[in-house]
Amino acid sequence: MKKALILLGCPEAPSQTPLAVYTTYKLKERGYDVTVASTPSAMKLLEVSDPESFYVTNKVDIESCLENLNEKEYDLLFGFVHKDAAAAYFVTFYHILNTESVALVFEKDIDLLEKFIKDVQESTDSKIVSARAYHNPTPLRVKIDRYIETLEV
To answer: Residue range 40-63: average pLDDT?
Structure first.
């Protein structure tokens, strides 16, 4: 079974948590064993959103995950990027894992969106899925669906 790692940083953006649960669900449908690495606050929101761990079954603190990470440990890295720190985490995990990667870059401010896209592009060769979004998850969900459909089963 293929393994995917989803990165979640600061949960300030309202669409991040539901999209993380949704992305986990969609990746599991494609046969992935999914682990979500997140900050403590993002973890709390995941636990409230999925109290019985029906969708998000594997959760780990992002710092402890980083400390124990090995190259090729996961087959897919999927990072939510809507802050400078999230971009930095994504780039760091990308270079350690050296695996297929996609950055989901989103922000309501177009200038920040372009900055985060540029930051990821300059530091990685990862696929970038981006949308100008913050509260409404639909533009991101549609793009996530399109990307996940391209993954081999």
So the answer is: 97
